[in-house]
Specification:
Layout lengths: L15 E3 L4 E3 L1 H4 L9 E3 H109 L3 H20 L17 H6 L16 E3 L5 E4 L18 E3 L8 E7 L6 E7 L15 E9 L2 E6 L3 E4 L5 E7 L4 E6 L4 E6 L8 E6 L11 E4 L6
Antiparallel strand pairs: 1-2, 1-3, 4-5, 5-16, 6-15, 7-12, 7-16, 8-9, 8-15, 9-10, 10-11, 12-13, 13-14
């Protein structure tokens, strides 16, 4: 054998190898008691076995290296594919949103065109109405002069001309002034409710603020009018005259949206008020502390009123959406059923906490009784 080492203790060639101690042995070391139960092999045999194991490990490592290289190649391929897919998807998104933007621009253009046409029709209608009223006023003024002249005549002459004068005035006196009511088109705004619902809040009614005539449901989501007042403490938070109740939630920032089902009820008021609004006495809607939309009926016609915009004739509404953007000072009311804007107010300088406002209004003979119901929040 070539390359055998010499034992330091016995100065003999180390021809054996102890597997347990991982050291070479000479003949004398082999007979030592400490190696009695150890696995001892001829050095050449141990070397061959070691070489075989190393060769197998070498082959296994090469195979494993190949697997990792393949995995790295696959990751690189996926990285390239990811970049390509991301770019493709980005282009698709831009394209799809481009279609939506164009669709919305077209819808906006159609809506504005309808609005412009309706406005022109309304102005023509009002101009004709003005002309007719002016002509009627002119006739009345002429007849007034004629009557005045008759009053100045001598008795016999006045008596002789009276019959003709009264006959000519009879038709005019039977006429009633007709006032044209302009109407503006309503148009569903595509995607509007989906956007608004992303800001929907879970609103509940505050029993501490409710007028004693208002009966709240156990879940604080419904309010109805009761003919007789309830025996409730007259705390400073409670409305004593106005038939109103506030929402429990307060808003000092952000965007917020909620929906209220009014059903067939024809007298109601919904909106937002300052938390500091006076609860005692009659609450004026033009106080600068409240921004609401009010519904009422008159002569079997349904009207909507707001202190900021006056009133307008409308078809009855079943469900109202209220949106608040505190920072932008914006409030808007929506007809949830046909997804159209009813009224919007902007550039309001909000200061301090705001709260949802609900009122059933004082019932009238022609009013339809009912409840106001806060719609449950829809899971997004």
């Amino acid at each position: 054998m070539v390359g055998l080492t010499t034992c330091d203790h016995h100065e003999e060639k180390q021809k054996f190898f102890c597997v347990d101690d991982q050291r070479p042995l000479c003949d004398c070391c082999l007979l030592a008691p400490e190696h009695k139960d150890h696995q001892v092999l001829p050095l050449e045999t141990a070397t061959d076995k070691c070489r075989d194991r190393l060769q197998k490990t070498f082959s296994a490592l090469q195979k494993k290296e190949g697997e990792f290289k393949m995995a790295l190649d696959e990751v690189r391929r996926r990285e390239t594919q990811c970049k390509e897919d991301t770019y493709t998807l980005k282009q698709c998104i831009i394209s799809e949103y481009g279609k939506m933007h164009q669709f919305l621009r077209d819808k906006e253009s159609q809506y504005l065109h309808r609005l412009g046409q309706e406005s022109r029709d309304n102005l023509v209608k009002l101009a004709k109405n003005k002309a007719k009223l002016s002509q009627q006023i002119k006739h009345l003024q002429g007849m007034i002069i004629e009557v005045e002249e008759n009053l100045d005549k001598v008795p016999l002459e006045m008596l002789q001309d009276m019959k003709g004068t009264l006959e000519r005035n009879e038709e005019l006196l039977l006429q009633e002034p007709q006032i044209a009511s302009p109407t503006l088109p309503t148009c569903p705004i595509t995607g509007l409710r989906e956007v608004l619902l992303s800001f929907q809040r879970d609103i509940t009614l505050d029993p501490e603020s409710a007028n004693t005539h208002l009966i709240l449901s156990e879940d604080l989501k419904r309010v109805r009018y009761g003919s007789f007042p309830q025996d409730l403490p007259d705390n400073k938070e409670r409305f004593d005259i106005t038939l109103a109740v506030l929402g429990t939630q307060t808003f000092t920032s952000g965007k917020h949206y909620w929906e209220v089902e009014v059903g067939d009820k024809t007298e109601w008021e919904l909106g937002i008020c300052k938390d500091s609004v006076s609860r005692k006495g009659q609450l004026p809607s033009s106080s600068g502390h409240i921004w609401t939309l009010r519904a009422f009926t008159s002569e079997n016609r349904f009207f909507l009123f707001s202190s900021q915009k006056g009133f307008q004739l409308s078809a009855p509404i079943q469900k109202v959406g209220i949106f608040l953007d505190y920072e932008k000072g914006h409030i808007a009311f929506y007809d949830v059923t046909d997804r159209s804007l009813i009224r919007g107010f902007s550039n309001i300088a909000f200061a301090g906490p705001l709260r949802p406002y609900f009122s059933l209004c004082l019932p009238k003979e022609e009013s339809t009784p009912g409840s106001l119901v806060i719609c449950p929040i829809r899971n997004q």
